[in-house]
């Protein structure tokens, strides 16, 4: 693991693998670069793989104040420069990480060969915004444990808990989030308006919906796909935290799509 101070924030990252092409992996809200632990080995033999803790997550600098998806995308650009990675890269992200990857694809189109997103969190519907803001206020006041049962029930469906150790490890890691940072990222999501951003994406794009995702059901993911010019959409048997829950399935979706578009 490595650390770098970029754009005024300290970020933890890992660059592994080999090859001429680079895949950037962006984790979900409440996750960390470890969310991709079982996905990376699928690509390391043939690609460089860059994964990192976003601002406010994992071991990166804690987040306070206002955040924007634009700033999150700029962090990826700075990491690429710090690692000496030039030219186009492919990106894959889950949930809020998917929205960050989509923002990068629109904001840095010249650097993006393809983007794959699972259950992308590209905003919060107006009807749900008030409840979301109340929830994050509870997190700030009472900590992550105050909402963990609901988060796991909706995001990590019981049907996907066959590997009990994997689930327990994820739950414990999720509980380790800094509540204020988590709320800051959630507030960024609540204030996001990404419709125009999605319409500016020109690279090949794949949106993955999770049949068992009760946080952002497939219909929401499909609406995001419809907003991206030429995007493909597939639905697979997974949940919201899909890179953790079904890493082989997610890796296969990423690999097949990148092969199909030669990215």
Question: What can be said about this structure in brief?
Answer:
Helix content is 43%, strand content 18%. With 263 residues, the chain is α/β, with parallel strands linked by helices.
Structural features, described:
With 263 residues, this protein is of the alpha/beta class. It has one domain: Alpha/Beta hydrolase fold, catalytic domain (Rossmann fold, 3-Layer(aba) Sandwich). The protein is built from 11 helices and 8 strands. It has helices spanning 40-43, 69-82, 96-107, 126-142, 148-155, 164-175, 179-190, 195-199, 218-227, 242-245, 247-260, and strands at residues 2-6, 9-17, 22-26, 48-52, 89-94, 112-118, 205-210, 232-236. Strands 1-2-4-3-5-6-7-8 form an 8-stranded mixed β-sheet, with helices on both faces. Helix 2 packs across helix 3 (96-107) and helix 4 runs antiparallel to helix 7. It is globular, with a radius of gyration of 17 Å. The mean pLDDT is 96. One of its GO terms (molecular function) is hydrolase activity. Pfam families: Abhydrolase_1. Keywords: Hydrolase.
Which characteristics define this entry?
11 helices; Rossmann fold; 263 residues; alpha/beta
What is the CATH C level class, in words?
Answer: Alpha Beta
Largest sheet, strands/sense/barrel:
8 strands, mixed
Mean pLDDT: 96
Q: Please bin the fraction of helical residues.
A: 40-55%
Secondary structure tally, helices? 11
**Shape category:** globular
Count of spatially separate domains = 1
Task: Detail the topology: elements first, then pairings.
Layout: E1 2-6, E2 9-17, E3 22-26, H1 40-43, E4 48-52, H2 69-82, E5 89-94, H3 96-107, E6 112-118, H4 126-142, H5 148-155, H6 164-175, H7 179-190, H8 195-199, E7 205-210, H9 218-227, E8 232-236, H10 242-245, H11 247-260
Parallel strand pairs: 3-4, 3-5, 5-6, 6-7, 7-8
Antiparallel strand pairs: 1-2, 2-4
Helix pairs in contact: 2-3, 4-7
